[in-house]
């Protein structure tokens, strides 16, 4: 699997082959925004569909919602985001670059900065003579807090109100918890899943789609009785590792990082990050947090609506506790690309760039080629192409030498290439080539769909 130590070839491949484009490029770009091209959009959709299938459809204890991006502004007061969803920033007065001050300090200390006050950070930067990473100046402003929520004015009878773009999908789930209890006949323990956009005005975005200002999350809030939190936490943690294996991430590159007491968010009693060995270093891919009953309690308090659950057997009333596994979609895509990317020398000395995606999430499942651009071959190839296209995202390619067509599909991570040759016209068989082993075998056209299905291990 991938041995690369830089994101550069991945960023280049993503642009060249239609996975990810820089946002608003014709206007010179719009910093830290990206657009998923046709193959990136397919990859993303496959990841989200597999998530929904795994965690909603295949389980008895889960339901899914699709909540709004704009929530009542009070919700962000209750959740603590208005007050506490801040980073500490510092500006270089000379080149006007902006930095996370804790990151500058971490570079000097070689460890994470926790619990340092703004004035201590300002002092540290001055005393240690920290330079601006961009221009080398030591002329910094004082450190100050910066709320990461994007806000937008909303017209309202008699004036204006500020609305916030959600910085996490979780709160939309908490706001719908009562509706789910009232309408869905769910019993604790149960979970609510949601996939959707979140927005954060990050001070230092970067590393391609790793840290962006608009991204997608796949989140689960799992509602439990307090006494069961530890077991629920470890069960979900192992579900998260199973998920990483399911999408094909190399288990040797997936690790856990336990948050220390000082690192825990205001709502969490235990948090573990699932970290991945990205080319730029080991960094957070996913997280799981025991959020206690913090969110529901606060929303009950702020909305004045009771959010208790009544145990149907004992009639005991209580506010459920919550374990939250959270998965970033964009970081999943980046990890999948890094994990799958390889540059290989073939036996004939030729080089190929290949994405070894798991067939489950590969954006294109099959490609069909006529060996040559001869009418009878083209006609048969189009027939096979249309047959496969009914089941899976399939491409047709008749342009150029067959080797080049294989290379083009390798770069997209297409697991199977099917070639129609002269023998096909005689006995209705085709060759099917495996992307990873490069082995080819002959299969009757009549058997092609079940054979491909078996290889892909996918539903029809
Ligand atoms: P980080 O420490 O990297 O800023 P976080 O701990 O703030 O991340 P969470 O609030 O736990 O992140 O968000 C849940 C998930 O959402 C993360 O595990 C990550 O996959 C994803 N995520 C968070 N922020 C971003 C971002 N700016 N760009 C892309 N994905 C993000």
Low-confidence stretches: none
CATH fold topology of the largest domain:
BirA Bifunctional Protein, domain 2
Ligands and ions found: adenosine-5'-triphosphate
Count of discrete alpha- or pi-helical segments spanning 4 or more residues = 14
Q: What is the oligomer described by this structure? A: single chain
Please give the share of residues in helix. Answer: 25-40%
Instruction: State the CATH architecture of the largest domain.
Output: 2-Layer Sandwich
> Looking at the structure, what is the overall shape?
globular
- Measured between the Cα atoms of the first and last residue, the distance is 28 Å
- The chain-level structural class is alpha+beta
Strand order of the largest sheet: 3-9-10-16-13-12-11
**Total number of distinct structural domains:** 3
CATH first level of the largest domain:
Alpha Beta
Rounded Rg: 26 Å
Number of strands: 23
Sheet of most strands: 7 strands, mixed
What is the element layout, followed by pairings?
Elements: H1 8-16, E1 20-22, E2 34-36, H2 38-57, E3 62-65, H3 73-79, H4 81-84, E4 86-91, E5 98-100, H5 101-109, H6 118-127, E6 144-147, E7 151-156, E8 159-164, H7 170-183, E9 190-199, E10 214-224, H8 229-246, E11 254-258, E12 270-278, E13 281-292, H9 294-303, E14 309-310, E15 317-318, E16 321-328, H10 329-340, E17 341-345, E18 351-355, E19 366-370, H11 375-389, E20 394-396, H12 402-412, E21 416-420, H13 422-427, E22 429-434, E23 440-444, H14 448-456
Parallel strand pairs: 3-9, 19-20, 19-21
Antiparallel strand pairs: 1-2, 4-5, 4-6, 7-8, 9-10, 10-16, 11-12, 12-13, 13-16, 14-15, 17-18, 21-22, 22-23
Helix pairs in contact: 2-10, 3-9, 5-6
Bound molecules: adenosine-5'-triphosphate.
């Amino acid at each position: 699997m991938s041995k690369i130590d830089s994101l550069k070839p991945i960023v280049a491949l993503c642009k060249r082959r239609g996975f990810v484009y820089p946002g608003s490029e014709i206007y010179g770009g719009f910093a830290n925004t990206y657009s998923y091209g046709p193959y990136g959009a397919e990859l993303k959709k496959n990841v989200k569909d597999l998530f929904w299938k795994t965690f909603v459809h295949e389980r008895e204890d889960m339901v899914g919602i699709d909540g709004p991006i704009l929530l009542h502004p009070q919700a962000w007061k209750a959740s603590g985001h208005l007050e506490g969803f801040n980073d500490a920033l510092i500006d270089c007065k000379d080149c006007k670059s902006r930095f996370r001050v804790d990151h500058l300090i971490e570079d000097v200390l070689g460890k994470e900065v926790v619990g340092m006050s703004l004035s201590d950070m300002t002092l540290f930067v001055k005393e240690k003579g920290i330079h601006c990473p961009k221009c080398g100046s030591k002329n910094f402003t004082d450190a100050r807090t910066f709320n990461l929520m994007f806000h937008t004015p909303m017209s309202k009878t008699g004036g204006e109100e500020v609305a916030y773009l959600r910085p996490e999908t979780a709160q939309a789930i908490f706001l719908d918890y009562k509706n789910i209890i009232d309408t869905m006949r769910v019993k604790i323990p149960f979970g609510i899943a949601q996939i959707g956009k979140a927005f954060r005005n990050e001070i230092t975005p970067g590393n391609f789609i790793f840290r962006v200002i608009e991204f997608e999350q796949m989140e689960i809030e799992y509602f439990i009785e307090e006494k069961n939190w530890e077991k629920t936490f470890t069960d979900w943690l192992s579900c998260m590792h199973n998920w990483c294996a399911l999408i094909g991430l190399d288990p040797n590159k997936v690790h856990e990082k336990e948050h220390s007491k000082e690192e825990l968010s205001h709502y969490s009693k235990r948090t573990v990050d699932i970290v991945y060995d990205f080319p730029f270093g080991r960094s957070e891919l996913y997280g799981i947090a025991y959020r206690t009953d913090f969110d529901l309690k606060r929303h009950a308090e702020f909305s004045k609506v009771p959010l208790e659950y009544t145990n149907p057997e004992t009639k005991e009333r209580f506010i459920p506790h919550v374990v939250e596994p959270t998965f970033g979609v964009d970081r999943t895509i980046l990890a999948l690309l890094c994990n799958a990317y390889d540059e290989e020398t073939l036996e004939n000395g030729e080089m190929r760039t290949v994405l070894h995606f798991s067939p489950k999430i590969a954006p294109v499942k099959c490609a069909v080629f006529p060996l040559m651009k001869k009418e009878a071959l083209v006609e048969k190839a189009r027939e096979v192409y249309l047959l496969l296209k009914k089941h899976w995202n399939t491409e047709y390619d008749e342009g150029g030498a067959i080797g080049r067509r294989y290379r083009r599909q390798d770069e997209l991570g297409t697991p199977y290439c099917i070639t129609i040759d002269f023998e096909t016209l005689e006995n209705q068989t085709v060759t099917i080539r495996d992307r990873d082993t490069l082995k080819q075998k002959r299969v009757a056209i009549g058997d092609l769909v079940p054979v491909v299905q078996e290889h892909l291990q996918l539903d029809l």
